[in-house]
From TrEMBL:
It comes from the Bacteria. Residues 303-362 form the CBS domain. This is Bifunctional diguanylate cyclase/phosphodiesterase. SUPFAM superfamilies: CBS-domain pair, EAL domain-like, Nucleotide cyclase.
Amino acid sequence: MASVPAEEWDDRSGTPAGSARKAALPAEWTRLLAGLSVAFQPIVQMRTGRCHGMEALLRGLERSPFASPNDLLDAACMQGLLAEVECALHAKAVAAFRALDHWPNAKLFLNIDARVVGVAGSPWLAPVALAPFTLAPFTLDGGAPDPRLTISLEISERRELRPDHSIEQAIDRYRQAGIGVALDDFGVGFAGLRLLYESKPDYLKIDRYFIDGIDQDTRKRAIAHALVGYAHALGILIIAEGVETEKEFYTCRDLGCDFAQGYLIARPSLDLRAVPERYGIVEELNRRDRRKPNEASLRLSEVIERQPPLAVNSPKTELLDYFRGDNSPSIAPIVDRQQRPLGLIRERDLKRFVYSRFGSELLRNKGLGDTLLDLVVKSPVCDISTPLDQVIEAFSAEEASDGIIIIEGGEYAGFLSSGALIRLVHERNLAMAADQNPLTRLPGNAAIVRHIERALQEQDRKHVLAYLDFDNFKPFNDRFGFRQGDRAILMFSERLKAWASGNGGFAGHIGGDDFFVALSGAEEKDALARVADLVAQFRSDAESLYDPEAREAGCFEGKDRYGAVRRFPLLSASGVAVVIAPGPHRLTPDTINTAIAGHKAIAKESPDKLCTVHLPTLYPLPCAALAQTEGLR
């Protein structure tokens, strides 16, 4: 929605082409817009519950000829009034926002039609030229810009971008004025990765389509995981749209999303009187989560440098003091008024000022710009709970040569230097080498036990934990030799790695021909079908290990455990899948092992080579007595 009077501008200079004047809206449009209202929905930090911002949403369309905001904007566009209507809607939103108590504590998120982004005469070009170096682009009373007002524009992906203008150039102008940019409805519209690449936004809002049921959909989780990793590598923060259940909240938070918006936290409200500082529902959800902090989070807390940031509106001369001294840091993290990181300023970029006799005077030169924003370079951003693999992935970005900004609850927490990250990588590599199977390079027993322990702690989600091993592997190994046996193991391990990567699961190698896989948060039927497919695929893969005669016969000759020669079926795999229902329980890794051991023989006799064990929600006694057993049909 929109806020400033439209003006005539010269695109070449970015200045008024004449005296500024308001663009008049036809009387029918003025009456129509006057009858509309503005509702606000909060955008909340997922780990603290702090209100980060309010999105302005249009209401009252039932009293108009239009069924939706898109219909209204389409009609304005057809009449050549889109920019003027956007300005009027934004003005209404800003006025309503400034009427709330405590409004300076939050950002205002305004939706802007992609068709007017960067177009001459459109909203948010004029304010940039008038007040290019303030955090607030305008005031409604025509006075000086109010530095308490911080705004982010949400560009929806549901509209096709104009092919004849540069999104990147327009957004650079927004950013120079301190106006943030968010990509709305990401993943379901026209522009996709192209818009993400061109706009270099501050926020990425993952569309509700991908959030709905994400706790039960491994494919949605995989897509969200990739988006979070890519965005954080570029210094972009993630907002999960449409969070409606506790399970969706936990899943999005654990994937690394920084903020949440949705009915679980608060519905859009027309009756809001004040901007809350925090939302109790989020604080309560985090209190109820009894899972231990992951090791990466604990280790990151130990190694990050807690160097103080500089506010983006600080005078440039403060940089001289920041970098002065023998032990001064080589970078300065820059944050906005809400402690959200904007990027870094590097000492090496300021050498001509820092080491100059007239450095202070040069920095005061208005021709070089008045705020720190002109000197800021983008830096990858990672939450303090981000898995180390994702942190390393972010560091591989071109912008990460100096290190990575670490945030907690969406706010600046510290800086992870390149040296500290190299130490973490070295520690991780040593730990992995000690805990990997030397043949397959899959996680070994200790890692498997840790994964089972974490799964048992996550009692709000369903888990499928499966033990898999080969059938008739010893006679196969004796008949064809250990090298062929190793080939079978390596073949299966590669299949497991691909399976785990594609399904967002976990795969480990217990030893010999014994393996372990796990899926969490998926529907039981889907998870079991994927495990069954893995078993079936290996049966087909293993045929390549035999000569044509054995494949045609469907068996091979070998010695049994008593030394007698007999025929054995071709190599296959079987498994026991333990399904753990959501809810409180007293399960331990030992009881999982007991359930598996008690049903291995049943799995090998099953036509589909898979036995499913359902553990009860409450589990006071050995599982073999209480488990329900059935073959997967």
